[in-house]
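Revision sheet: structure tokens.
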Amino acid sequence: MTAKYKVSRAIEVDADPEVCYALLCDFEKYPAWFKYVRETKVLRSDEKGIPNKVMFLCDVVVGNIVNKRGFLVVNEYEYDHAKYKITYKVVDGIVKEAEGYYQFRRLMSGKCLAVFYIDINFGSPLPQKIINFMIEHLMDGVLAMIKSASEKLVKGAPL
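Predicted:
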């Protein structure tokens, strides 16, 4: 029996969608702001030089413990520049099957809503405690890092 989970999380960011989207599309800079990502490598780009297959070497982080052994994830990407949306599909690495998207939506307040959606199959059922950890710490953590990095960029601060 496989365990498939569909989860969506969102956070308000005090930045324009363009800033958040550009941050997320610049894979080579992930190690500067994405604390789980140790290394990235663009494996393939389209004819315009836009990355559409990227390898990530990530650290395993549980609480304050970091496992530097790391794990590999390879994603393929599609972009909808007009909607500030980047869709991904895991094609290799530790995760059996996953796809989803990030989207940045302009709000009437002048901020943007950063949305992270994932449809993931771990290959076997997981205890609810693990699922809750992933949602609360990993997904919310990723959104918090996007928020922090985007707001730093708006202020002209380095990542």
